[in-house]
Design a protein that fits this description.
Layout (H helix, E strand, L loop, with lengths): L4 E4 L5 H19 L7 H14 L4 E7 L3 E10 L9 E9 L8 H15 L4 E4 L6 H9 L17
Parallel strand pairs: 4-5
Antiparallel strand pairs: 1-2, 2-3, 3-4
Helix pairs in contact: 1-2
Amino acid sequence: MARFTVRRAALADLPLIEADVAALFAEDSGTREPTIDQAWPALHARAWLESQLGDDRNLLLVAAAPDHAGYLAGALRPADAMRTVPVAVLVSMYVRPAHRGAGAGGALLAAFRDWARAEGAERLSVTAYTANTAALRFYEREGFRPHETRLEAFLPQD
């Protein structure tokens, strides 16, 4: 199994992460969610990634072995009047196909857990498409369990 180095992303990493975001959109939502604008990465990913770098409540990680293997974006949701504990949300993660199954996802997730603990989070949260069985298996192996189910329906237009 390859050893992966995980570190916080820097401005110089953004072109590779932008490519990962576009690949994630094409592979995941592009095949599972027709209402997601597949042009979003080209139009907005760079600004979103830059905002992640500049906000202490967010985390942007990269994994390498030694070439770029993938990224993870996370965010801290503080406790509030409704949710009484801080929650670390795994916003998005992508591992390049050549590195899948070699430990890159686990290394990114371990670094995310460390960050979440250091930030005082008491829970971790992630969403995945129900049809993305590979992602669901990965997260369940990593200790995540189903917690809630969101149902959607298209509203017929008159």
